[in-house]
Design brief:
Elements lengths: L1 H24 L1 H19 L1 H15 L1 H10 L2 E2 L5 E2 L1 H21 L5 H4 L1 H13 L13 H14 L3 E4 L10 E5 L2 E8 L7 H13 L4 E6 L5 H10 L2 E4 L19
Parallel strand pairs: 5-6, 6-7
Antiparallel strand pairs: 1-2, 3-4, 4-5
Helix pairs in contact: 1-2, 3-5, 3-7, 4-5, 4-7, 5-7, 9-10
Keywords: Endonuclease, Hydrolase, Membrane, Nuclease, Transmembrane, Transmembrane helix
GO molecular function: DNA binding; restriction endodeoxyribonuclease activity
Protein name: Restriction endonuclease
Length: 257
Amino acid sequence: MAGRGSLAAPLFWTSVVGGTAALWLGRPALVATGLAALLVLLRALDRPARFRRLVRRVARRHADTLALRQRQESFVDAYGNLVRDGWLREREYFVVRTVLPEIENRGFSDYAEERFDEMVEIVEAVAASVELPDETEAPDDGVGYEQFCADRLTEAGWRAHTTRASGDQGADIVAERDRVRLVVQCKRYGKPVGNAAVQEVAAAARYWSGDMAAVVTNAGFTPAARKLAAATGVHLLHHDELPDLHPVRQIRGGRAR
């Protein structure tokens, strides 16, 4: 109904203005009115396609991140079932927070509700189109995974080293770059990481006088973990995001080392 209304108004006013002009200018104005009405009609008919192109363009700007989130927020449970609940929430969040403002600014606000599922499907397709690095390259054991993450940080310009197994106070890696200290906890999991890891690395950052804190995993994070991380300034990362992690002072440590 909204689409019909948005078409009826331009056609009506084109006819009114053109008809009035035709009374004064005759046949040329009548022909021009017909052409203008045809352009209005063609533009209206092309509107759904322009809408889909816009949504796809917005999603493609964030394609790599969406693909990582899809991988993080999907896992196989103990019964062999593929659980995608986290990814389903993530893609809807992306549509609401990132796509909707764009389409509303471009005159498609009437599509926000009636074509919401279509937007979600486009986001799903864009995320699936990205070819990510092979997940099997990350070691399965905890110690190996910690070294794997430390190596990635080193390649990105950090001076990174793993901590000893005992007495680390929740820190698996301590790294420094540009006088910024990063404290990391690594989780090689088969399910989303909970908020306990966020609590531990936040405490570890204070112990190690860290400026930044992060939990790195191959899996995703629970909603509770994301909420706590937002409140504490802890980064929640997939290991593929480590090469793009830049030093930023966020957390003030309480103990000098």
